[in-house]
Amino acid sequence: MDLAAYRADRAPRVEAFLEALLPSSEIAPQSLHAAMRHAVLSGGKRLRPLFAMAAAEAVGAAPERALPVAAAVELIHAYSLVHDDLPCMDDDALRRGLPTVHVAYGEAVAVLAGDALQALAFETLANAARGHDAEPVAAALRELARAAGPEGLVGGQVDDLDFAKGGSNEAVESVHRRKTAALFAAAVAGGALLGGADGTAVEALRAFGMEVGIGFQIADDLEDEHEDSPCSSLAALGSEGARARSEELLAGALSRLEAWGGRAEILRELARFAVRRKS
C-alpha cells in the first residue's frame, strides 16, 4: 500500500472514531460541545494519528489497536491550537480557512473547549485499558502526559512566547522539540505500546518521532518564510541551512527503522511526507 492509499484508508477510521467520541452539539451545554466539534472536525491531515497507527502496524499489530492513542493525540493537538489562536497568544482569526474557535464561540468558551478536549484525550486513552493489559495503556498515558505538559507542549509554548530575536538554532530546536516534536514522539511511542512493542522498540520509535517532529516544524518554518517569527529555523539558519538540517533529521529518523524492514515502510513514507511535504 502506498502512502496515498494508506491515508485514504486509515484517516477515515480516525475521523469516525473522533466523531463518535465528541459530544453532540445538541446536548447541553451546546455551545461548549459545538466549539469542541468545531476545533476537532474542521479539517486537518490527521498526521499524528497516522503515525500512531503506522507504528502499531510496524510492530505487528492491527491499526485499530492504536486508535485510542491516535485520537488522544489528535485531541491534545486540537486543544493546543484552540489555545494558540487566543488573543492572549497568537490572536489568529482563521484556521484552515474557518473562523477560529474564539472568533466563532467567544473567548471564554474557547478556553473551556480546549480544557475539555484535553480532559477527553486522557479519558479516551485510559478507556483503552478496559479488557486489555493495563500496563501498555499506562505507559502510553505517561508518554502523552509528558508530551502535553511543562516538559513538552506547554513549556515549549511559554518559551516560544518569550523567544528573543537572534536566538541560536539550539534554542530554536529546544522549543520545536517540546512544542511540536514531543507530540509526534508520543503518537509513535503510544501506537507502538498499544501494539505490544517492548521497551527497546519503543525507545527507538520515540526517538524516530522526535526527529520527524522537529523536521516537520522546520518544514512549517520554511513554508511560512514570510512571517517574522524569531523562533524559527529559518531565522536561525537561513533557508538553505534549514533545509539541510531537516534532511539531516530525516536521515537520522529513517536509520532508526532498519530493524523493522518492510513493516515500517509506511512510517518511512509518512516521515518523508512530514518533512518534505511531498509523498
Total number of strands: 2
**CATH hierarchy, class:** Mainly Alpha
Strand content: under 5%
Shape: globular
Count structural domains. Answer: 1
Class derived from helix and strand content:
mainly alpha
Radius of gyration: 18 Å
Which H/E pattern describes the elements?
Answer: HHHHEEHHHHHHHH
CATH topology title: Farnesyl Diphosphate Synthase
Layout of helices and strands:
Elements: H1 3-21, H2 30-40, H3 47-58, H4 67-84, E1 94-95, E2 98-99, H5 101-105, H6 107-126, H7 134-148, H8 153-161, H9 169-194, H10 199-223, H11 233-255, H12 265-276
Antiparallel strand pairs: 1-2
Helix pairs in contact: 1-4, 2-6, 3-4, 3-9, 3-12, 4-6, 4-7, 4-9, 7-9, 8-9, 9-10, 10-11, 10-12, 11-12
Please explain how this structure is put together:
The chain has 279 residues and is mainly α. Helix content is 70%, strand content 1%. It has 12 helices and 2 strands; from the N terminus they run ααααββαααααααα. The protein has helices at residues 3-21, 30-40, 47-58, 67-84, 101-105, 107-126, 134-148, 153-161, 169-194, 199-223, 233-255, 265-276, and strands at 94-95, 98-99. β1 (94-95) and β2 (98-99) form a beta hairpin.
